[in-house]
Write a structure and sequence with these properties.
Blueprint: H1 2-23, E1 35-40, E2 43-44, E3 48-51, E4 54-56, H2 58-69, E5 73-78, H3 84-90, E6 95-96, H4 104-107, E7 110-112, E8 117-126, E9 138-140, E10 146-149, E11 156-159, H5 163-168, E12 179-180, E13 186-188, E14 191-194, H6 197-205, E15 211-215, H7 216-225, E16 230-232, E17 238-242, E18 245-247, H8 251-266, H9 269-277
Parallel strand pairs: 1-5, 1-6, 11-14, 11-15
Antiparallel strand pairs: 2-3, 3-4, 6-18, 7-18, 8-15, 8-16, 8-17, 9-10, 12-13
Length: 281
């Protein structure tokens, strides 16, 4: 009986190994797959948003063009922003375009394409706020590095797991607003995380937070929709580049995406898409 059980376990192990070798790979099989599944969070205009039940935006049009040039069918999955990296890492989605900034932390989980757009993180405040620039928040040393907060009771709103969240949730030396312990855990929490930018802006309007940190272009859209309630501060918070995330095993797909982006840059398609949604750029 013991030998039979042992043999069964061996066969089960072999079967699992063979099965996973053929079916459990997280890599995108470029030669066999006919569909590209794009993960995004469609609450980030003008990069991705929903209008009349349809997806629009810079990221959406770039993804459609990539799929077209690679002879693939595009399927868009609108999910929570903080589920995107995990979904790409697990192989649930093939690529992510969601105003994603390349960070060292994210690079541990996924691979990134070449940059296709530039994003500026800025600060939105209420119309009657006394804040006028980023300098109203920080005290600096002789080299211009932040060393302390001017107001320790400031309340910051962000969309969770965005780069605005990452920066704001760090300590003051990283241009953040939280007091952190030596082990990196939060001692004093001044940042409130929301599921999307619209919720953060609503919290700002109702006085739950004093500032919202978000990408410049969505910020413009929110301010244009609420001109009597909120405004953008004069100075940038951060300046960053956006890229497409893919699974670390999807090397062929990554190469194809980079080749396509290069071609779109060269023939003017990428610039035309961006200018369609951001005319002043």
């Amino acid at each position: 009986m013991k030998k039979i059980i042992t043999l069964a376990l061996v066969l089960a192990t072999v079967f699992t190994t063979v099965f996973c070798a053929t079916s459990c790979s997280k890599a995108y099989d470029f030669d066999k797959e006919t569909e590209l599944v794009m993960a995004t969070n469609a609450a980030f205009p003008p990069y991705e948003y929903v209008d009349g039940g349809e997806y629009y935006g810079i990221d959406v049009e770039i993804a459609k063009e990539i799929a077209k040039r690679l002879n693939k069918t595009l399927r868009i999955e609108d999910i929570e922003f903080d589920s995107i990296i995990g979904g790409i890492e697990s192989g649930k989605y093939d690529m992510a375009l969601a105003g994603l900034t390349v960070t060292a932390e994210r690079q541990k989980s996924v691979s990134f394409s070449d940059s296709y757009a530039n994003g500026v993180q800025i600060m939105i405040v209420r119309k009657d706020s006394a804040y006028t620039s980023i300098d109203d928040f920080f005290n600096y040393d002789a080299e211009g590095n932040p060393v302390s907060l001017k107001k320790t009771d400031v309340k910051i709103g962000v969309q969770k797991t965005t780069t605005g969240d990452i920066y704001a949730s760090s300590d003051v030396t990283g241009w953040g607003f939280n007091d952190l312990k030596e082990d990196g855990s939060t001692e004093t929490e001044r940042v409130t995380r929301y599921n999307n930018g619209a919720d953060a802006v609503e919290a700002l309007k109702t006085g739950k937070v004093d500032v919202v940190i978000i990408d410049n272009e969505p910020a413009k859209a929110f301010v244009n929709a609420n001109p009597n309630d909120i405004r953008i501060l004069e100075t940038e918070y951060t300046n960053e580049d956006y890229a497409i995330a893919v699974n670390k095993d999807s090397k062929v797909l990554l190469d194809k995406i980079n080749e396509t982006l290069a071609a779109m840059k060269a023939d003017g398609t990428l610039d035309a898409i961006i200018k369609k949604y951001i005319p002043a750029q």
